[in-house]
Design goal:
Radius of gyration: 15 Å
Number of helices: 0
Low-confidence stretches: none
Shape: elongated
Number of domains: 2
Largest sheet: none
Mean pLDDT: 76
Structural class: little secondary structure
Number of strands: 0
Helix content: under 10%
Length: 71
C-alpha cells in the first residue's frame, strides 16, 4: 500500500501478506519449521547473495562446485 512501516508486505509475491502467510519465502517449508522464517530481523548468512541462506544452499559461494566437495 506504499505506507512506510506497513504490515502489508508479501515477501514471496504469492498474494498472501507475510503477517498471515504460513510460508513467507514460498520454499515449501512452513515458517514454524524453519530457523529463519523471513520475519527474523537478524537473518541468516547468505555468502553468495543468491537469496538462499547458506544452510539451504548446496553451493554457498556460487562457484559451481557443490559444498560437499569443497574443504
Amino acid at each position: 500500500d506504499g505506507v512506510a512501516g506497513s504490515y502489508r508486505y508479501d515477501h514471496d509475491n504469492d498474494g498472501i501478506w507475510d503477517l498471515t502467510d504460513n510460508d513467507d519465502d514460498n520454499d515449501g517449508l512452513m515458517d514454524w519449521f524453519e530457523v529463519n522464517d523471513g520475519n527474523d530481523l537478524t537473518g541468516q548468512f547468505d555468502a553468495d547473495n543468491d537469496g538462499l541462506d547458506d544452510y539451504e544452499d548446496d553451493d554457498d559461494d556460487n562457484d559451481g562446485i557443490l559444498d560437499i566437495y569443497e574443504f
